[in-house]
Amino acid sequence: MSLREFIHQCRLSSEVVDIHTPVDSDAFLSALTCDHKQENSSSPIMLFHTIEGSSFSLVANLFGTNRRIDSVLSHSNVPLVKRMQEMPSRIVSWKNFCAYIRQEFACGQATTPERGLEFMQLNNLYALPQIRCWAGDTRPYFSLPTVFTREYVTGDINAGVYRLSPISPRSLTLNWRPGSRAHARWRAYADRDERMPVSVALGVDPALTFASLFPLPDIGNELAFWGFVRNRAQSLNLNAAGLPAPACAEIVLEGYVDPVKLHPEGSFANHTGYYTDSALCPVMQIDSIRAREAAIMPVTVVGPPPTENAMLGATVWKLLFVFIQRELPCLLHLVCPAETSYLPVLLLQVQEPSSLKEWEFIKRIIQQHSILSRAHTLILLDQTADISDPKLVYWYCMNLNTHSFHVLKSGMRVVDGVAWRYQGKRRVLCNE
């Protein structure tokens, strides 16, 4: 499915608002998007047809509702989470799943050119529409690109979503912070004083965008996960550097990342509600800019919930819980509130242990789980708690005594909302 096909599909269900009035993408576009979402509970896609200074369009809020995310991730009307739950019992862990999709849905090279609209060559990055979400952003940027790179040793193609900020007509910064997987891949080239080839696609199949955001481990493969979502292995044409240059994309950038050149990225509004610190980032030099006529570029607008990045974060954890629960069947439910999905804060409902000693053992296993250990905060609850209501959960948990709050050596916070029943306490239950 192309981006245009997805927008058309959503238009048929009256989920697209067309805005033809000229709009300045410098903070005004994001203000309009945020205001419209607050006033309209359906949180529609907003398609801005006339962007000042550009001949192209911008589309915001593609993933703004659970219904649209489910639509992207469903195959033959079967939700992705259901397909994952019905996988063979031998796939008992996240790593098993990644090995499975690499074997069954590995992306291949197209044997014939992909059919798509003709691209036109552009000479200047500034011909493309960029946004500045908030007044304090250092520069305008591209907020929802799919960035393709290759592993230096294995040659595996990786896809990720990173903030790109033009600093000249033919160069931009890539938000690869130290410690990230993308930064490690670049260092493998830089340590050998070699340029790292990169291709960027803007306006791709929304399922590919989601796959590029999904936090697969090193043995996983974003393109294989894209194939799993679409229920068939995907094929892409490769450019001279061996990287995807999808004809179905609206815009394609090709070039390389310099092995030594760094540039201060500046400060940008983040999903947390705070500006990021300025940091030195690798620089991509652009060899080619290609765009469809009347191309549509997707953007994501950060701001207070509900925002699509918060919705996507909650969806990611709903899918990850399939693997967590297979490894830890004592866990009954997981909720990731959208307001804290970026951290994330996770609410976990646990099957009632028979004793405090058993609970302490189970709690250690939960805290050490490879996926759950990435959480900022775990709020552990028993079967008497209604975790579908985060306000009620916070009422119960934030009024616990200080012995129920722990900070592990890793920095993860744990709120123990289970042990109270073994400490001679009585709790008011809402169904009493």
Protein model, in words:
This protein has 432 residues and is α/β, with parallel strands linked by helices. The protein has two domains: 3-299, Roll (Pnp Oxidase, Chain A); 328-422, UbiD C-terminal domain-like. The protein has eleven helices and 19 strands. The strands form four sheets. Strands 5, 6, 7, 8, 9, 10, 12 and 13 form an eight-stranded antiparallel beta sheet that branches. Strands 15-16-17-19-18 form a five-stranded mixed beta sheet, with helices on both faces. α5 packs across α8 and α7 packs across α8 (222-230). The chain is globular, with a radius of gyration of 23 Å. The model has no long low-confidence stretch (mean pLDDT 88).
Key features of this structure:
432 residues; alpha/beta; Pnp Oxidase, Chain A; UbiD C-terminal domain-like; eight-stranded antiparallel sheet; five-stranded mixed sheet; 11 helices; 19 strands; globular
Describe how the helices and strands are arranged.
Blueprint: H1 3-12, E1 16-19, H2 28-39, E2 45-48, E3 57-60, H3 66-73, H4 80-85, H5 94-104, E4 108-109, E5 119-122, E6 146-150, E7 157-160, E8 164-168, E9 171-174, H6 181-190, E10 196-202, H7 206-213, H8 222-230, E11 235-236, E12 251-264, E13 280-292, E14 296-299, H9 308-327, E15 331-335, E16 345-350, H10 356-368, E17 377-381, H11 390-397, E18 405-407, E19 413-417
Parallel strand pairs: 1-2, 3-14, 4-11, 16-17, 17-19
Antiparallel strand pairs: 2-3, 5-13, 6-7, 6-10, 8-9, 9-13, 10-12, 12-13, 15-16, 18-19
